[in-house]
Amino acid sequence: DFDDAVSAERTASGYRLYVAIADVAHYVRADTPIDREAYERGTSVYFPDRALPMLPPELSNGICSLNPREARLTKTVCMEIDERGDVGASRAMGTVIRSHARMTYTDVRRILADRDPDCMAQYRDLIDQFRLMEEVATLLWERRKARGTLDFDLPEAEIVLDLQGMPENIVRAERNIAHRIIEEFMIAANEAVARHLKEQELPLLYRVHEDPDKATLHALEPFLLSLGYRLPLKREKLTPKDLQRLLEACRGNPEERILHRLLLRAMKQAHYAPQNSGHFGLASTCYTHFTSPIRRYPDLIVHRILDLSLDRRKLAAKEKDELLLYLEEAGKQTSERERIAMDAEREMVDLKKSQFMIDKIGLEFDGFIISLAAFGFFVELTTYFVEGLVRLATLEDDAYQYYEKENLIKGRRHGRTFRMGDQV
User: Fold this and answer.
1) Helices 317-357, 297-310: crossing angle, 10 deg rounding
2) Burial of residue 283, with CB atoms counted within 10 A of its CB: 0-12 exposed, 13-18 middle, 19 or more buried
């Protein structure tokens, strides 16, 4: 399912960016059987060996999918971006597009980063476009970074399956310049739509991410101080910039991975709500999800609200109240379905990891400690991103005890210690 297409052009004052998104709302009408089923599912679910789509494949892979060289209905956001990466005027339109090519992250990386001659020859007519996109995305990223956006650069595991669907390897998922381009363009489009609908005073389903819990961050303070880092926790309000400085300070150091993991755990979970309380992780004051209506129901809701704006429909007070009530309920439903999907995806990845490790019992691997508990410590293997528990009862060289305040496990007789981040 291809739900987005992008293009950019140079202007006298900077750049013009187009983000076209499949117009799913045209085909999936509110309160029809397909819509009710999509609402119940809330999201597509992605497992290592299969996907459970939110919409029937005839829609998700067919008429809604922005297949190359086929006319497709879209909602397009056009944004004017200056030389500093500031998004100025933007407008949303109902459009018909015909995309030039179906690109993959790998091919765009091969063009922009690897300068692969075969790939460059295949897409020679589009190379200048990709280079311009890279330019725009870099400016957008620098601008977001300046306002304090958080970038948790944690490696993600990718399960490589054989023809029978069994795992044959676990590798680090690639994140390259092509991923960055799409990330930046989607974030810019989501913000532009959120700002536009807020200015129109239309009720909206926002994507909100609340400030981290101060008590959780206070609990991390002794560990941070032991590594020579601190957060300004005495201040009344912590800003994304404060956390960003810490992430930057540990970049490239041995403790980087564990600190990123701990701070990510301290974050609250983003969710959907009709009240705009901002997005802490993106350091954004106004954010929504608009760019993936094929696989996320909240985006489909936002498309329908955008239709009200494009049709210049003024809602009566009663209609606004009814829409707000619906958005309150829809926000709870879609947030819950998102959490259920994430848990299911995590469990399936864990299952595949277990299947992969089943013939490796008795072998030794390098890893590092990711958390401590009274009964033992958890280790992540460096090569395979697999986690496992080392029970204190299995450490026979000493009697070990967990010291919660000091955040360490220590042997009573010989004093050997285990701390978070230690290589084992």
Assistant:
1) 150
2) buried
Mean pLDDT, the chain, as a whole number? Answer: 94
Say which residue the tokens 């297409």 belong to.
Answer: 5
Q: How far is CA 59 from CA 157, 271, 294, in A?
A: 30, 26, 8
Q: Are 291 and 74 in contact (CB under 8 A)?
A: no
User: Strands across the sheet with 4-11, in order?
Assistant: 4-11, 14-22, 71-82, 87-98
DSSP secondary structure string for all residues of 131-193: HHHHHHHHHHHHHHHHHT--------EEEEE-TTS-EEEEEEPP--HHHHHHHHHHHHHHHHH
Reported as a single tens digit per residue, the pLDDT across 55-89 is 999 999 999 999 999 999 999 999 999 999 999 99
What tokens were used for 261? 């993991």
Q: Which residues contact 402 (CB under 8 A, 6 or more apart)?
A: 372, 373, 374, 375, 392, 408, 409
- The whole-model pTM stands at 0.94
Please give the single-letter amino acid code of residue 85.
Answer: G
Q: Are 340 and 144 in contact (CB under 8 A)?
A: no
pLDDT (0 to 100) of residue 253: 85
CA distance 205 to 327: 6
For residue 400, what pLDDT is reported? 95
Tokens representing residue 269 in the block: 């979970």
The rounded distance, in Å, linking the Cα atoms of 295 and 1 is: 8
Cα distance from N-terminal residue to C-terminal residue, the chain: 42
Q: How confident is the model at residue 254 (pLDDT cuts 50, 70, 90)?
A: confident
Model confidence at 116: pLDDT above 90: yes
> What local confidence, expressed as pLDDT, does residue 300 receive?
98
Chain centroid to CA 275: 21
Residue for token digits 């992250």?
A: 105
Q: How far is the C-alpha of 173 from the C-alpha of 158, rounded, in Å? A: 5
Rounded CA separation 281/85 (Å): 19
Amino acid identity for residue 84 in this structure: R
Written as one letter, the residue type at 7 is S
Q: How distant is the alpha carbon of residue 216 from its chain centre?
A: 22
pLDDT digits (tens, 9 = 90+) for 139-184: 999 999 999 999 987 888 999 999 999 999 999 998 999 999 999 9
